[in-house]
Amino acid sequence: MAENLQQLLDRGGNTVDLLRNSQLGTYIYPVVPTEFTNWRREQKAWRDTAVLYDQTHHMVNFFVSGPDALKLLSDTGINSFANFPVGMAKQFVPTASNGGVIGDGILFHETEGHYVYVGRAPGANWLQFHAETGGYDVEWRYDDRSPSRPYGHAVTREYWRFQIQGPRAWDIIEKLNGGTLEKVKFFRLGELEIDGTVVKTLRHGMAGAPGLELWGPYEDHGRIRDAILTAGAEFGIEPCGSRAYSSNTLESGWIPSPLPAIYSSEAERAYREWLPANSYEAINAVAGSFVSDNIEDYYLNPWELGYGSFVKFDHDFIGRDALEKIDPERQRRKVTLAWNDEDLGRILTSVLDRDGDGYQFFDLPNANYGSSNFDAVLDADGKNIGLSLFTGVTANEKRGLSLATVDRDVPEGAEVTVVWGEPDGGSKKTTVEPHRQMKVRAVVSPVPYATVARETYQGGWRSTGQL
Fold first, then answer.
1. Cα–Cα distance, 319 to 77 (Å, whole number)
2. Distance (Å, rounded) from C-alpha 466 to C-alpha 460?
């Protein structure tokens, strides 16, 4: 039996086949109920009133401190750390030696020399590996995400983590505060008192309006949550279930699950030998109509994901040599694809097809059926011009949308084709049943797609600026 990822790859043959046929199942946002009211109402609340997102359970917290903590972060991140004082956060993006993105998350500088990375497992695993093996004088702690299926067993975390977002968010925040609260600068940390407890805050605007992320000791979770919902009732706050939560990125434009670019380069062999055979990277399920024998065709560089402005060559970091050889002006760019209503309607109703295999099931509001999703995007001549990476439906826009990366010369307004469903009847994933593919018309559109987000987001976060 394989003990690590490298052994699994050596025994499994083609890496793409291994990942495409993973038995992991769909990506789960654990513990938080799927819906409190219904996903349409909850989606509309982040546009019209306010929502309370419970982010306590689906992300890893990686704590690192010590004399070399900042050096570890600088050595592994494309971001500049020339200015990263206490009380600041940034979107942290590590890359492999080949320049492909590992993942991304939010990095908090909470107190002097103490940092917290919050995000999916790939980024945290990468940091832990280098903290352990890189000769850094650091202390670290890995607070893993909650189990996908706790089966009634007790679940604990170090922190609870909420967000209050939406056009009425600041009214709720100031009511909790008992008066006016200064809007600290974007991606800066602050404090807020809730029910007699001082909690930490991060200023940003996931729903296109000023809002806060808040966190504190897990034992206070229920009490703080109740206080927020009570204060927010008069402003129309809605608790947001995991079903709607996972779809908010369709409007805001963040692509959350790139395939970690670690499966092929010799420089990452030691990392693959360190990763256990049951790690995220080893059981990650790749889905979609784009199929290549070469795993490197699934890697995405920072420009393709909209992180090009984060790349700063003012420091040495893993992947720098590869990124310096890339011409940013020739890279694919991040866009939103607005799906044709009639074509999407045919997919949605094919579940009622009694005469043969329908199309690949399109779940609502998040249609992704793997951990990392890759659907082919074609031009009018059938040429592959990009990848559709995250797909679903938003009740605010009343559209099917997907986030994609396309050739730079494909203009906004162009009609393209997204191939929905896998070839040859589908892979052996547990989320796939025999189906036929469908070519879906789509229009290349801005990212973020939501006008309110596009016009009010601060530069850099999920858009085009820098942090």
1. 9
2. 4
